[in-house]
């Protein structure tokens, strides 16, 4: 028999040798048919058993070698070794360690200091690795580096690093973004949303293609997470410069990267499921986006449904993938099923979603859906983007649009519907027949359309809505303000109110500069006061820190503050409060003007929702600027900047723009080409009689409606439209009317 002698090994070396020996057998199963019996003499300096590791005791190696004659420490449990001497009724004898008197036995409940230190070191090392992995993934997310993120994932698996929900969320986000063909760095701050599916034309056409990152050769050379993250840090400067170029438009990836990211993304998702890591809305939305990349709308919709079953509240972005696939495939029914599911769960579509639904409805020629979506845009969007405006133009110039609509309708029911709806729409369906004309127009300072002379309406909150809105604001503010500060303000308003205008003092005093200047507040106060019917002082809302300090102790500034106090025209909000709640509530309560340039778009105002706030803001906010002669006020627009539907079936659609003056805004003026027309039934609408009605029209000195002084093409088109309309009022018009009455039909010159 062979005698093999081994040098003393450390426990870790011994374990490694055993694993290596076992792996050799597994790798060569046919090489070792039988194993010879080997008698070995092994000298081991010290190997602790699991029980000894826990208890902290250590047995002498020589004593251990005599217990089993093998030279190894006994792995027999302690209770078995103690009871082994009790056989055939023999008296049980418990032998004590001869070193017990010299070395007291440690308690099992108190681990040794060395064990504690080892555990602390292990936990510290684990925490460091987890922190390094998170830092690496954050860097990948910020730079849109999907390949490096996947490499970090692979290294983490090799090192046995346990990943949590956050790690998987970042990985799935990057994989889903790359799978759709365009990565938006998560921390770029662009905030752009898109419903574009893969292979669909995108607005990001100028993005550079991202095939392989510059350190691709290092992806495989790094063997640990720490090493790879360190390399990423060293190359961060160059990568950050690259990400800046892509920050606005995103990073366009190649087809190879797309397919690779999609494959690995589903693999990572399966790993997350097998590890039983809890899902959240972000991870499942990424899975839905990967389903969109596959063109599988049913899978994407199923993911959203699964959220509700798992107690996760979906967000608007969660529905985007399914809606995008169904709309791109022309599946109208399934697309509106997604919209129905959104509404049932309290999620309201925004312009991107409504635009996708409008596009698929127009392509399918579904007039009822188009009418429904125009009113959805009126309620939730108000002024449409240029891309949505193009779709609306396309619809009204289609043959389908010219063929739908009521020729006769009940005037009383239409008028009642408009009154009940608050004005600006009736919702009774398409009115009239025949071809539509779509003109670009502007609305004058009197609220009249300069194309058709239609008087557009102003839509404000009614008293009941105002009361409900004020209570909502007060409830939210009271929860966020400390020490009943807001309740004190409410009582102050009840005593000193009402006011006809409220001034956001900080916004005015800091206008175009970093230092607060009371003189600017004073100029605005005096200016707006002269415009109020009663000439009463407006209410100035300021944080108390704005009226204290060395700067405010100057005689001029102090005199201004004292003047406002004596007039009971200033309220100083307490320390720790948010003055936005105060000036907003006061303006709502008194239904008065609010002087501020604040766009009111941050999270605070998002709490108010879209039911009342946009409508109220449009009718009550007064913006301001300064000229050489003093403050200039930009009063609320003369009409509501929202899609409007008239009693005659006309449509006026405002198009979003970045114009400072509402008088420069472009509107769509949409009318029937053969209007005005008369109907024989007296109970139905007679458009020709309503043309001169001052409740519907603005005074005009000419018989023809004024033209928009826009581009030459638009002007020529409108002249042609007016010319055609003029002919219809001549002999040809009378002959056409007689022919229609004879044939009980509508003649449409759409050849």
Overview of the molecule:
The chain is an alpha/beta fold. Among the domains are: 3-83, no CATH class; 122-199 and 206-278, no CATH class; 463-610, Rossmann fold (3-Layer(aba) Sandwich), CATH 3.40.50.11980. The chain is 48% helix and 8% strand. It contains 30 helices and 15 strands. The strands form four sheets. It has a six-stranded mixed beta sheet with strand order 9-8-7-10-11-12, with helices on both faces. It has a four-stranded antiparallel beta sheet with strand order 6-15-14-13. Strand 1 (3-6), helix 1 and strand 2 form a beta-alpha-beta unit. Helix 5 runs antiparallel to helix 6 and helix 15 packs antiparallel against helix 16. It is flat, with a radius of gyration of 39 Å. Mean pLDDT is 76; it is low at 1-96, 187-191, 201-215, 239-247, 677-696, 701-734 and 746-751.
What are the SSEs and their pairings?
Elements: E1 3-6, H1 11-27, E2 39-42, H2 50-55, H3 61-68, H4 78-83, H5 113-143, H6 146-158, H7 165-179, E3 182-183, E4 209-210, H8 225-234, H9 236-246, E5 251-253, H10 255-274, H11 281-293, H12 297-309, H13 316-328, H14 332-344, H15 351-364, H16 367-380, H17 386-396, H18 399-403, H19 411-420, E6 436-441, H20 463-480, H21 485-496, E7 501-504, H22 505-509, H23 518-531, E8 539-543, H24 555-566, E9 570-573, H25 579-589, E10 593-595, H26 603-606, H27 613-620, E11 621-627, E12 630-634, E13 644-645, E14 651-654, E15 667-672, H28 687-690, H29 712-728, H30 731-743
Parallel strand pairs: 1-2, 4-5, 7-8, 7-10, 8-9, 10-11
Antiparallel strand pairs: 3-5, 6-15, 11-12, 13-14, 14-15
Helix pairs in contact: 5-6, 5-7, 5-8, 6-7, 7-10, 7-11, 11-12, 11-13, 12-13, 13-14, 13-15, 15-16, 15-17, 20-25
